[in-house]
Structures are given as C-alpha cells and as structure tokens.
Amino acid sequence: MTYRAPVDDIMFALRTAAGLPGLIETGVVSVDEETVRAVIEEAGKFGSDVLDPLNGPGDKAGSKLVNGRVETPAGWKAAYQGFVDGGWGALPCPEAHGGQGLPEVVSMAACEIWNSANLSFGLCPLLTQGAIHAIDTHGSAELKRIYLPKMVSGHWPGTMNLTEPHAGSDLGVLRSKAERQADGTYRITGTKIFITYGDHELTENIIHLVLARLPDAPPGTRGISLFLVPKYLVNADGSIGARNDVVCASLEHKLGIHASPTAVMKYGEAGGAVGYLVGEENRGLNTMFLMMNAARLAVGVQGVAIAERATQRAIAYAQDRKQGRSSRGKAGEMSPIIEHADTRRNIMTMKSMTQAARAICLVTARELDIAHHATDPAAKAAAANRAALLTPVAKAFSTDIGIEVASLGVQIHGGMGFIEETGAAQHYRDARILPIYEGTNGIQAIDLVTRKLPLEGGTTVETYIGELLRTAEEVRASNNPEFGRMGERLSDAVTALAEATRWMGTALAKNPEGALAGAQPYLRLFGLAAGGIYLARGALAVVRDGQSGGSNPRIALARFFAENHAALAGGLRDTITTGAESTFLLEPEALAG
Amino acid sequence: MTYRAPVDDIMFALRTAAGLPGLIETGVVSVDEETVRAVIEEAGKFGSDVLDPLNGPGDKAGSKLVNGRVETPAGWKAAYQGFVDGGWGALPCPEAHGGQGLPEVVSMAACEIWNSANLSFGLCPLLTQGAIHAIDTHGSAELKRIYLPKMVSGHWPGTMNLTEPHAGSDLGVLRSKAERQADGTYRITGTKIFITYGDHELTENIIHLVLARLPDAPPGTRGISLFLVPKYLVNADGSIGARNDVVCASLEHKLGIHASPTAVMKYGEAGGAVGYLVGEENRGLNTMFLMMNAARLAVGVQGVAIAERATQRAIAYAQDRKQGRSSRGKAGEMSPIIEHADTRRNIMTMKSMTQAARAICLVTARELDIAHHATDPAAKAAAANRAALLTPVAKAFSTDIGIEVASLGVQIHGGMGFIEETGAAQHYRDARILPIYEGTNGIQAIDLVTRKLPLEGGTTVETYIGELLRTAEEVRASNNPEFGRMGERLSDAVTALAEATRWMGTALAKNPEGALAGAQPYLRLFGLAAGGIYLARGALAVVRDGQSGGSNPRIALARFFAENHAALAGGLRDTITTGAESTFLLEPEALAG
Lengths: 593, 593
Description:
The structure is a homodimer of 593-residue chains. Chain A is 57% helix and 10% strand. With 593 residues, chain A is of the alpha+beta class. Chain A has three domains: 7-153, Orthogonal Bundle (Butyryl-Coa Dehydrogenase, subunit A, domain 1); 158-285, Beta Barrel (Butyryl-CoA Dehydrogenase, subunit A, domain 2), CATH 2.40.110.20; 443-584. Chain A starts with 6 loop residues before the first helix and ends with a helix.
C-alpha cells in the first residue's frame, strides 16, 4: 500500500503541541499557516509519488560497491535529482545561501515525510542539513561562499565522518591525522567507518566533514579539529576539479536501510586528502556537536516516520485481512481483524505512541525556532535551553517508539509479517539503527540526566515540568467525562516525573552512578509524561474549538495513551528511585559469569 | 563467540522453580539429579560443538528450493544425522516406541539448548515432538507401529500442516479436502502454507500431519479431520515405497530463521495424496490442539533460548569493547563497556528477564510431568489445569522477552550490532517469528483470559496466585536486607495480578470485549509477577542453603527484577482495569482514518 503523508495529524501537532499560531503571531515563523500546510502537502506528494515506490525495491537491491564505485538502487539518482529540482533540500536553509529559510517546525515535518516514504533516501538530506549548519555557523566566509550554495541546493550533499573502528561513542580517542600545509590547507589521513552516504554517484560532488587530530593536538576531546574534505576539489571558478585523496574502501552489510550506502572511507591513502579547517583548530568537537544536535532531533523524527509508516501499513492490512468473527461480525462471516479487540489495542497503541513522539519532536523544533528567531534575548535563551533539554528525549523516546511500533506492525500481519515481500519486516529492520546512530539512546539518557537536568541550576527542567503539570490540572479540572481518567493519569505521570527529577538532582551530587543507572527509565518516563501532556493539549483544543462529542479521535487517542501508557509512570519512578542499587549488585566479572 | 549451555542456570531453575528434587522424590521424574545434569551437559556439548557453528553460516546460506528439491545449508544433514545418532530426538519420547522417556523438564531444558545454539535447526525436532505426541495419543495401533519408532528415533521427522492462505489464526475456514477411499485410506488435496521443514533431504521420509475436511463434514472447526500423510508411502515391511502426491511448491523469503525451510505444500496435484486418519473424523482440531499445546510451550522455550544466546553474545562484546572511562577505570584508559552503568542495567535486564522466562517455562513443563506421571488422580488433574493455565504465559511472555532481549543485545553492540557479520542482528531477526507462530501472542492472551482463567470456576488461577502471594509474603517476612525491596515489590505485583484477575472474572461475564482489550497487558502482568516470584524462590533457596552474603548472583538478579521490572505491575493493572474503555472509543472506520 502507498504511503500517505498524515498532513492533518502533522498540522494538528504543529498547532496544538508546537503552538504554530503563536509562532506566526510573534514572527518566529514568517510564513502563514496556509503556506505551512501547502508545503507539507506538496512534500507529501513527493514522498508518495517518488520516494515511497523506491523504498521496497531499494531495500531489496541495496547499494553496492562495484569496481570502486558505489551504485545506488535503480531510480535513486532520478529521485534525488527530483528532490533537488523541487527545492526540497533548500527548504530549511539560510536564505543568504539560497535557502528558503523555512522554520525548523516545517523542516522537521518534511523530514518526517521523506523518512516515512523512504528512510534510506531520507538519510542523505538529513546529514547534509547537519553539514550545512556546521559550515554556516563556524566555516570561513570563503568556505561558505564556495560550498554552501551548492550544498543548500542539494547538488553537493554532505557527510559526517566521526567514527573510527576503535572510536565509536568515545570520540576522544580518534586517530585520523591532519597535517598543516604551507598554503593554509591540511592533509588528512585516516579511516572512518559507518559513513552514511560516504560515497555514491548521485551527485557531481560530496562534501565530507571529517574529525581529525593535528600533530601537536592535546590528547582527548580537546585535540580534535573539524575539516571540510570535498570528494572533488573545487576550482576557483566553482567548477569541479581534481579527485581528492579519499575513497570508499567498502560498504557494510547491514540489518536494514540497505539502500543507504554505509561506507568505510579511507582518507590519504595516496599522501593525504586536501582538507579545509572549519572553525578553530582543536575545537572541532564543539562544531561537530552542533551538527549532531541538529541530527539528533532529525533522527528522532525518523523514529516518528518509521512508526507512522508501519502504522499505516498495519492498518491497511488489518482492514483487508479477515479472520474469526468480531463482536459486530455477522454469523458465518469472517471479520476484518481491525474489528478484533487486541488488534484495536495494538493500533491505538501504534497511533497514540506515534503521535506523542511526533509532538515531542515538533515541540523541540519549535524551541529551536524561538531560539533562532525570537527578538527577546531572554526568550531566546530559555528556548535554547528547553531545546537542549528536549533533544535527547526527542531522539531516544521517538526511536524506541519507532522499534516498538514497527514490531507491533509485524505482529498485526501475523505470519505474513515475517515474509519479506509484505514490507512490514523492512520497517522492523530499518528502525533498529535509529536508537544507535547519532549517539546511542543510552548516551541520550545520560546526556539528559547529567547535562540537561542541571541546566540553569535545574530551572530549565523545573519550569518545563511545571507547565506540564498545569496542563494535567487543567484536564482534571475540566471534569469532562469524555476525558475519562486522563487527568488523573497525567497528573500522576507528571508528578512521578517531578519526583524522579528531584531524586536525580540529589543523586547527581551524591550517587552519580545511581543517576546513570536510572537514566534510561527516566528518559522513558519523561517521554510518556510529556507525550501524554501534548496529546492532552490537543484534546483540550478540540473541546475549546467545540469539536468534541461523539468520539473525537484526538480525544480518544489522548485518553487511551494516558490510561494505557502514561499509567506506567509510577512504576518507572519506583524503578528509578529504588532500582539503582540492585543494578550494581553484581560487579562486571560476576555479571559476565 | 561460541555458545555455552547455561547448565548451572538451568539446573538452578529446575531445582528452585520447578522443584526437581520433589519430582524425583515422588517418582514423577524417574531419573536422579546427577543424570539430569549429565544429560543437559551432554546436550550442551552437542549444541556448542555441532549446532552453534552452523547457525551464522546457515542464516547466510538459507534453505533453497533447487529443481524441486529443498537444499538445506551445508553441514545441516550431518548435524541432523548426529542429532539422531546421539539419541537426542528420542529423549522425551515414550519408551514403548523406542524413546528414552525422559520427563518434560529435561526435554525442555534440552530444547532450550538446541534453539539457543541454532533456532533454525531446533525447529525440526520441536515439530516432530508435537507430531509424535498426536499420533501416540490418537493414532491407531497400526499407525503407531509403522511410524512412531522411526519418528521417535528422528529418522522420519514430522510436520504440522494447519495454515492455508486465507486460514491463519482462524482454522475453521480451511478448505483442504479429504476423500474416503474403499481401502480405508483417504485422498488429500489442498494447499498449506508456512509449513516448517515442509520438505528437505535431511531424511529418507517426512511425516506430515494435515488438517482437512471430509465432503460431508459440518462447517467450521467441528468439521476438521487430521491425517497422516507421509512424503513416501511405507511398504508393509516398513521399507520406503512410492512417492506420495505431495510437493513443495515454494519456500518463503523470510525476515529470519533463513536456514529453516518454510514451505508452501501442495497436496493432491496428481489426484490426491494418500492419507491416514488420526483419531476420529471431524475431531482433528482437538488432536491438533494437543500438538499445538506441546509446541506452544516449546516455542516459549525458544524465546528463552534466543534471549540466552543474545545475552551471551552481548556480554562477550561488552567485556571486549572499550569506550570511555567507567567509575572504576584508570585515568587515560578506556574501560570495557560492561563497566558502564547503562550497559550494566541492560545486561541485568537481559539476564533477569531470561531467567524469569526460563523458570516459567520449566514450571509449566513440571506441571505436565505431574499431569502425566503422578499417581494421585487429583494431583494429576490439578497439574493438568495448571499446565493449561501457564502454557499461554510461557509461550507469549517468553517470546516477547525473546524479542526485547535480542533488541537490547543489538543495542549493546552499538553500530556493530547493525552489521550482519556481528551476529547480534540475526537473533533480532530470528526472534521475531516467535510471538507469531503456534498461535500469535494476542491469541495466547485471549486464550489465557477467556479459557484458562475460568478453569475449575476460577479455582485454578486463584490457587496459583495464592501460592505466589505466600512466596511474596515469605520474602517480606524474612526481613533480609539483601532482598532490598523485593518483598514489597513482589507483594504489590502479585496483589495487582489478583486484582486484575478479579476484574477479568467480572468482565468476562459483563464486558467480554473489555476483557479481551486487557488480555495482552494481563498476560504481561502475569509473567512479571510469576517470573518475579520464581526468581525470589531461587533467592530464598540460596539463603536457606547458607550461600547468601557478599553479592550472590541469584539474589541480585531476583532483587533487580523485582525492583526494576515487577515494579511496573501496578501500572499494568490500572491499564487492564481502567484502560479498556478507551481502547474502543474509535470504531474501526475511525481507527483506520
């Protein structure tokens, strides 16, 4: 079945969770709501018409390294050209470099659509955005002039080269080298692994951003510099010049995202690749974190995207497949399985989880927009902190949901789900990378607890939880019978989050290992509470707009999520606050025994 | 890394959860503990030496249909021959037919080992056991005489042929036909799908058990008969005769278990396959349920098996892989990731979940042994009911755990987990079939709630929960500081299970759809409470044996499980008792919208 962009759901989340009308009113978003919707609808068409049909065949064919050249699946090159021609790459980019300057909230909505339609394809522009962001923020005027217009248009996609075989999560130990040259350039040598779209023939050039060390660099993360290394050198007139000393040595054989070429890249096998410093020497990691932070939110959106796609596919199957007789089925006839109670539970879970994760991601995008475009410096700073707080939640919660929903999608298909031709299994495979790349979800949880909770001495998170609590109280105070126990469950969930947060505050000072032990369930609790509240704000908006009554789907999903998923919040709090000690009862040697 | 059978863990679960010493004392198990251990150790050697080395290569090669013949991966045939020669197939079979008559508790322990070492291989004997059981219970004396000795030895493996393209979970609508012949045999025609080991060249014959309808059969499940259909007819002297009219039309291209051939089988393309009635006409489903019930427990054990294998692989990687510095790491050196808090949490979760699921499966096997071999009729009946109660929990809880643990295993490997060569991804793929086949986990949950809770007017489950509660109280009353909050959490968990069970009792009468909506979380709650109690019984046994103090791994894992996983029980109860209504707020049409 064909993917259809959930335009109404996205617009609803933008309005009720991300507060789009307010963003427009205050000038943070400079286009009107109709324009936003039109952009998302057009993106949806490109996703459905161009990207979605390539998704299954691309998975089957995979990208291949043939005689030193990376061959992407049939149709990939034309699709990428269509993407560039449609101006989609330029959507969120700075207007100074030819971009359209659309806000993050719109960019992330489009990002969801590309990745729902075709996760392997969506990765290419996703990483290009991060590279553009890094160059725009820290690159020299010349680098910007030469590279950004072509990257913004999508003609020259970008890559991120961090990982080395021995340096995955721990970048401090990377070994790639950069030697200063008399002409101000550098010569880069080293091997990088897991480089997404590290090589291909989709475009005339590829712009690699590469972390490496100068000979006199201090050890650890303070001795890492960032370099721009083009696949082809660029002549003074902007035309394509000589091949640079960088090659794709091999492609990985992966569980999923087969069409996305994951390359081992060799720099400087013939003496050194020409590189240009981005930012200052030895400050590369800061710039890279800038790229990674943007990419982390986008990966969270990929989690939403795969969940949305898996849900659509499962629903289509559940409407079509008939087995047994449901409570409203006729005697002697089989009912579509979507009428069966346990399938209905599964689909309610898939939809509500997907929508909760989407809301969290779009709210994070909203905060980034405010941080970039608000006029009040205090508002900008507060939004930047809130975006920093929410980014690990957006990344990790949404990508965990991506796997859970994709797995439920397989389950709904029964035996057919296990057959590759059905398509459900691809989502389950593709989704599995999302909690790993751009910082594993374990690292996101640690980032949340150790770096984000202490922001502004704890005020960032306190203020945030206070706002969540006010919504929970509003739901409760409304005494709306349509809301069932939503108010009670959300109140309990946010209270549990507040208690766990206080516990973390103490633990960080007195029992840091205990705080780390609880980081994963804490992030989950955060996601359930925040997601539940965003869905509830949607439900409140429906009531305010006089659209409730009957069984409004927004209210139904918000209530279901609160009563069936946010209901686990108290248990998670107990896990965090009393489960840490037992995590460490076994020393690593005993744990391995 | 090589799989090593967890002999100590299995023996510990057999002793403390399944009560092996008592079973031996009462004569239910007729061999002594040393023999049990020796058998499990020998099985472990066969698993490690023969089956495990074929697992990765078998996944890569897969089984293939070449010129109408199914080719299993290299080494498969010799391994199967070794399995037969070792007498492993005969292990649990009736002695009357050449079996060793070992009890279910030992059989399931061995089953875990085959499936940890090689899930694709383990399926072949698993299904043969079900077929043997059906023939032994309902087959004629002649069928038993001709087929059982060869099946028991493993020379002629068995298959189960239930599913048709339009009849998956709903067997009532199957269309395969059986025509009575003058000689008392039947002619079978029809197409069966998803037939595990439906065809191969491992053995000289294959014995298919096939569900089909007689021309005058009543509609629905009361018109289904069971037939034995050999691939090759068997001459009067027991030698192999003519090829029967059954062929493998194709093999499925699956997400996992690539080495296990999943066949589309065509019966009667040349006039009708010769079949022999097993049991009575139109009573085939009852016999098939007998097979399926045995197979359901074995599939639960497969969940334990894949979880165990994934855990072993993840631990080996976590000991080897160095990243960052742990709290006990030396300055300037990277630490093995097994020292990091979040990896420790993940491994504690993997180990404790695996052991909880193993205990539930072995307890179920214990009840089957008592049901078969006890002398007191009342004890037999009670055990049969308890086995019936626990079977859906063993199947569904353990296979859900299988997926969750395999997914954590990928996560611990980071980027390497997504690379197929690492091996972690295979477990994640293989595990995905387990919640689907032999009755989806949704169907298990419905079976638990609608057919098992009402057993003996609810007494079966009440008595069972009462026993769980006594253990929880014993833990609590012990006031052992090593137990942390284990007593409190388990008390709460079992109480939550009791409350949810009472709610289900009322709902089944007054709100059956609500009961169905809560069936999945109810089964999960049941598994967490029961699993937590079994681990606690192990911890109590350790204390009784004077082996506590320091940090005993049994106590540590029991406590961790209670404080970190059973802690979610209260939330699950709330989901069951107050979340059903919102599951149905959206009619199927709105749900699909």
